[in-house]
Amino acid sequence: MTYKTYSVRETHSIAAQLASTLQGGETIALVGELGAGKTTFSQGFCAALGVTATVTSPTFAIMNVYEGRFRVVHLDLYRLKSAREIAALGLEEYLGQPDTVALIEWPEAVDGVQWNANVTVRLSATGEGERTIEIIYGNGGDTISAGGEASSEG
């Protein structure tokens, strides 16, 4: 499904719609260039799950964890260079757990690591305050499928 949004509020609304479909244990890949709206989408997503903390980009922290209806693990892999750095985060404690949902920004950043995301959200800024949001479900359909873990190639 592809959506056009023209405001932060509309982007939050699309994120909230996705969040409302979750059952726990899902991994959501957020794909888009700098400034595409990944953090804005994450803010709407987390708010819909009852997160009351301020949701910020995990660019420098690498991983932020929020509590709401589910625990939300928000990762930004942009600065990581190896599967070993990802392993050091201790994600096995979170990924696939029924009380947790993972949001992964820049999932393609580390060569040799593939994420089995239940949903991929592709964001692109198309104008001043305007975004295109494409939601791609892992099973090729319009619902969430099982999965969510990362695997290292080779």
Set down the secondary structure blueprint.
Elements: E1 2-5, H1 8-19, E2 27-31, H2 38-48, E3 63-67, E4 71-76, H3 83-87, E5 100-105, E6 113-115, E7 119-127, E8 130-137, E9 150-152
Parallel strand pairs: 2-5, 2-7, 4-5
Antiparallel strand pairs: 1-8, 3-4, 6-9, 7-8
Summary of the model, kept short:
This protein has 3 helices and 9 strands.
Helix content: 10-25%
CATH architecture: 3-Layer(aba) Sandwich
Order of SSEs:
EHEHEEHEEEEE
Averaged pLDDT, please?
A: 85
When the domains are counted, the total is 1
Q: Work out the helix count.
A: 3
CATH fold description? Rossmann fold
CATH class: Alpha Beta
Using DSSP, what is the number of strands?
Answer: 9
Q: Which homologous superfamily in CATH is the superfamily?
A: P-loop containing nucleotide triphosphate hydrolases
Across the major sheet, the strand order is 1-8-7-2-5-4-3
Main sheet attributes: strand count, strand direction, barrel closure: 7 strands, mixed
Distance between the ends:
33 Å
Integer-rounded radius of gyration: 14 Å
